[in-house]
Amino acid sequence: MIFLGKKIYELSLKNLFFIYLTLLSFFLIFSYFYLEIYINKFPNYIDENNDLILRSLPFDLGDLLHNLYYKNEYTQKVYPFEINFHLARLPLFPLFLLTLAKINLNIYFIFFMKNILSFSLIFFSSYIFLRDLNKSLYHFIILLAIFWYNPYNTHVLLSLSFSDTLVSVFFPLIFLLINSRNLYLNFLFAIFIFCLYLLKPSIWFFCTIFPFIILLFNYIKFKKKYYIINLSAIFFLFIAIFSWGIFGLNKSNYFPFASSSNSTNTFFLTSMLNKEFNTHYPKLSVDLLLNTKVSKKTKFKNEKEVYNFFKEENLKFIKKNPEYYLKGVLKKIQFILFGIFEDGKHEYHNKIRYSNFPNKILVNIALVYAFISTIRTIRNKKQVPYFDLIFLSMFFLYLAPHIIAWATSKHLVSIFLLSKIYIFSKIFKCSKF
User: Fold this and answer.
1) CA 363 to chain centre
2) Taking all residues of the chain, what is their mean pLDDT, rounded to a whole number?
3) What band does 226 get if pLDDT is binned at 50, 70 and 90?
């Protein structure tokens, strides 16, 4: 107990790496058992040599990875279209898995290397954040436990199947980075913005607005101390926008940005812009509601035509059915805040996901407390509640696209972790603001 009360800055480098290697060892043992369950559930992901069969990966990731690995082509097919797509997937997650696969195709190697990276980012970001705030070792242990104690959250953080596995690392860590007194962690914020923009299309709204909010807050509060660092986040954002945009111009003759960063976005929106969505969501997978009939009848020359066609169809549906769409928005908000049942399945059942209880309870506590704290600070102290406003802006900028489209539990892990880190920071007063 005395050791846990020791200040983090008092730890020697030797002690720090002993703690790191000890916790990493426990993490790898636990991860091994998870991987065995994962492989038993998806035996088609590997061959007899335990090499990953790239084409078997879901969410249109497999075909792209197969073509990248064996043909060196950033192209893929998307059911039910016959054309090739270059902009159906943002590049960071496929290229990250490709890099690991080029080293070794063995699923154990890819899985452990990916998750050692995730664990290390969480470990060292948390360490530096708390060290510079003069916190103790027990604060450090609690903060690390926030990421890994919940079974469902851990499943998303460990999985190889979807880009949310990295989003759920980068996004909540941003809250630590921008509240840190450490200039190097503030610079890492810029790199994370770059990564998030190229990871998942729903993050574009957060990535394009939040750096400017932080630039303003830091300038008002600290003048020029963090000014150059925060400008770097905007610089890295523009690098991400233009690198993907120029690639899109070369390959598909249009500049992908914002909602058009994925050429299939409007097609996948047909899964919720139909008269079946409100009946089936959130229990059934929205993939079952995709408008594949129109897709088979209509011939497209390129992916730009696909995007524009379904964009017009979606706008027509919203204009004709505004009340139905708004009802769906309310269902999504209800699910995000209060849904406890398993979601996104291919058949109906009412199984409770018990991991949702702590997740949803703490999300609501964080949200209510942040609003109350904001009002009290403005009214009673006549001050700007920077810390609360940062949390609220991250919360709503992340969720806005999911409320417009749809959210599943794996999309919400980032918000679950953000809310718990906010509560932790409030309790133990962890912020530079």
Assistant:
1) 16
2) 93
3) low
Write out pLDDT tens, residues 151-208. Answer: 999 999 999 999 999 999 999 999 998 888 777 777 889 999 999 999 999 999 999 9
Pick the closest to residue 68 from 93, 90, 95 (CA basis): 95
The residues pairing with 341 across neighbouring beta strands, listed in sequence order, are: 352
211 and 193 in contact (C-beta within 8 Å)? yes
Count of other CB atoms within 10 angstroms of residue 408? 16
Coil, helix or strand for 345?
A: strand
Residues with Cβ within 8 Å of 146's Cβ and at least 6 positions away in sequence, in order, are 417, 420, 421, 424
Alpha carbon distance 233, 64 (integer Å): 29
* Residue 296 in this model has a pLDDT that exceeds 80: no
CA angle 399, 194, 413 (to 5 degrees): 35
Cα–Cα distance measured from residue 163 to residue 161, given in angstroms and rounded to the nearest whole number: 7
Q: pTM for the full model?
A: 0.95
Give me the residues paired with residue 223 across strands. none
First to last CA, the chain: 30
**C-alpha to C-alpha distance for 187 and 119, rounded to whole angstroms:** 20
Structural domain boundaries of the chain?
8-260+351-428
- CA pair distance 114, 166, nearest whole angstrom: 9
Tens digits of residue pLDDT in 237-254: 999 999 999 999 999 999
User: Can you tell me whether residue 51 is helix, strand or coil?
Assistant: strand
- Radius of gyration of the CA atoms of the chain, in A: 22
Alpha helices in 198-291 (DSSP H): 204-222, 227-252, 265-269, 277-280
- Concatenating the DSSP letter of every residue in 106-141 gives BHHHHHHHHHHHHHHHHHHHHHHHHHTTT-BHHHHH
Judge whether 296 and 80 are in contact, CB under 8 Å: yes
Rounded CA-CA distance 317/270 in Å is 9
| Tokens linked to 427 | 């309790």
Cβ pair 312, 268 in contact under 8 A: no
DSSP 225-239: TTHHHHHHHHHHHHH
Joined tokens for residue 412: 């919400």
Judge whether 67 and 54 are in contact, CB under 8 Å: no
CA 114 to chain centre: 15
Q: Cα–Cα distance between 310 and 293 in angstroms, integer?
A: 13
In angstroms, the CA 216 to CA 210 distance is 10
What is the rounded CA–CA span in Å between residue 259 and residue 245? 12
